[in-house]
Design brief:
With 309 residues, this protein is an alpha/beta fold. The protein has 2 domains: 217 residues, P-loop containing nucleotide triphosphate hydrolases (Rossmann fold, 3-Layer(aba) Sandwich); 63 residues, Alpha-Beta Plaits (2-Layer Sandwich). Helices cover 31% and strands 29% of the residues. The protein is built from 11 helices and 13 strands. Strands 5-6-7-3-8-9 form a 6-stranded mixed beta sheet, with helices on both faces. A 4-stranded antiparallel beta sheet has the order 11-12-10-13, with helices on one face. It has a 3-stranded antiparallel beta sheet with strand order 2-1-4, covered by helices on one side. β1 and β2 form a beta hairpin. It is elongated.
């Protein structure tokens, strides 16, 4: 069952088209990544999904509700952490959690939620003294205090150091384990690969591909690549005849083989049958960045234009 269905979503700002006929479907219990460079239209898309921004065209259904007409009912079931969110410097963590809990009819107990997210010792701390990682924990707590069925997290780990980023990733996994469907907006390839069950790659307001990170990297990122120096003479046909091998290229005394993930084992076994070994073997897999390049014609960071996010 789809938690979120988006069909033909379009949003403009004057003459600038930020979102162009986007289609999305987010399933129950998954972490769904909306992945794209800065300015791709990611934030505009999820703000329309959350009912925070009105689209110019298209259909959106979230938990069976229309964000435009059922906003009150929807906000009872959706938690949102926005990219530019911040709290007053003097507001204490406990005060913020109790304030937000008061917005919901069936809110989570603020003290229990703080304990779950490791914020008990920060309960009386003002927001201004929190570290970046602690502020992100507070953001997650505020998104979860209403016991949402869907959580929308926008660039949650931007600006965090590696340790805090990994810690936040663990919190997102725990949210999924508790049955919360998560829409994760990110421009980090690594983050999408680590956390997301499926992703939609967005560029200049369009979805260019959607699927699991591994499948997108495999199908569009060039597949598995291996390079080696055969210890004996072989004909290319020995390897090109393997179903898992797509291409064989010679570069001096080395062979470069591209194929499916199974190609590595298939090639090694084929060589072994004729008494040859792959010396100096190097193996690499296609990445989401490779897939993005293949689909758009430019590298991920080259698409960042500073427009609407």
């Amino acid at each position: 069952m789809s938690v979120v269905t988006v069909e033909g979503l379009r949003k403009t700002y004057g003459d600038l088209v930020a979102v162009r006929d986007i289609d999305l479907a987010v399933e129950v219990g998954e972490v769904f990544g909306i992945l794209g460079p800065n300015g791709a239209g990611k934030t505009t898309t999820v703000e329309c999904v959350a009912g925070l921004r009105a689209p110019d065209a298209g259909r959106i259904e979230v938990l069976g509700l229309d964000p435009a007409t059922d906003s009150d009912r929807l906000h009872e079931q959706v938690g949102v952490q926005q990219q530019q969110g911040a709290l007053p410097p003097k507001l204490r963590v406990g005060e913020a959690l109790k304030l937000y809990a008061g917005f919901y009819r069936d809110a989570e107990d603020p003290r229990r939620l703080a304990a779950t997210l490791g914020l008990t010792d920060r309960w009386d701390a003002p927001y201004r003294v929190l570290s970046g990682g602690q502020r992100q924990r507070v953001s997650i707590a505020l998104a979860l205090v209403g016991r949402p069925r869907l959580a929308i997290l926008d660039e949650l780990t931007t600006g965090l150091d590696p340790a805090a980023r990994r810690e936040t990733w663990g919190l997102i996994r725990s949210m999924r384990d508790q049955g919360v469907t998560v829409v994760l907006v990110t421009h980090s390839m690594e983050e999408a690969g680590e956390l997301c069950d499926r992703v939609a790659l967005i560029d200049h307001g369009r979805v260019v591909a959607a699927g699991t990170p591994a499948r997108l990297a495999h199908e569009h990122g060039g597949g598995t690549r291996m390079s080696f120096r055969p210890t004996g003479t072989i004909e290319d046909a020995l390897l090109t005849g393997l179903p898992s091998v797509r291409r064989v290229v010679r570069d001096g005394d080395r062979l470069a083989v591209t194929g499916d993930p199974e190609a590595v084992v298939d090639v090694v076994l084929a060589l072994d049958r004729v008494g040859v070994r792959p010396a100096d073997l190097e193996v690499a897999s296609g990445t989401l960045d490779d897939a993005f390049l293949a689909l758009t014609g430019h590298r991920f960071h080259e698409a960042e234009d500073g427009g609407p996010r």
